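Q: What structure does this chain adopt?
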Amino acid sequence: MVYRLLRQSFGALTGEIIAIMGGSDHLVPDRRQSLIYATRPMLASTGSQGHRHGFDRLIWIRCAVLELKGSTMASRNRSARDLAYESLRTKIMTMQLRPGEKVSEVELASSIGASRTPVREALGQLASEGFISIGRGGGYTVAALDIKDVQNLFEALLLVARSTARLLVANATYEDLSYLRKATERFDTVVGAMDAAQIAQRNYELHTLECRIGGNTYLSMLGERVYSHSQRLSYMSFSGAGDQLDELPEHYRKTCTDHWQFLDAIEQRNTIETDAIARRHVALFRSRVVRYIEADDLGGLDLDDPDPPNL
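A:
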């Protein structure tokens, strides 16, 4: 009787494991396989070493099932959170959600077909990055952007660009240079299409890659934040200043030239030249933003700061 109950329990658990495996694409494959492989000999030998060992095996397999279920649920939650994060970040970067605009947790959850928990986690992450403000009552709004923010951003951007340039000369390998070359080519490709959102995204990817290759973890984290906020400003200045859009092709040409000359200077281990190009590149972006601020269509930039811009 006990033997038959053990066999039935093992059979049910085996079916449960297989069902979980069949719908658990997000599980780490090695861990998933190790669990199912470990249970097979136990199932095959049930009863051969006594009922006590059978119960021990039953408990072990039950734990395996719970771990599989937990891993699957955690993976699904991460996927929903990542989807919510990317959706929100894209809307913020492309000004679909403007500075000061309220963000509905319920609407976002509905739009991506997720529960509110992963959406809340995504909002928390964006708040930690400075893109979302959380009100005292728990409401969410897109963080404001004013002249002082822009001034501070350019100060940080110049520091990051120059420090990264020095580190790249010292640390970049030939393999690293090949990665940078591919990222530079991807930027050139989207420039040809004149897609402001993709240009801002590829520029962000190139410069954060430079930061990571530089090899300083703390500078890389700072660079990630600085270039994230620069990405939003890039999109605004590339797409929002209507009467200045005819100047963009020349701006993009200079930007592409800077990228390639910077890469050449790194390869030549020329510290002086990389520093000069880094300075010039930040100044080029700054000049574009100044022209954008001077235009009538500011697309979300708050000019209530009492002091005039000194960029």
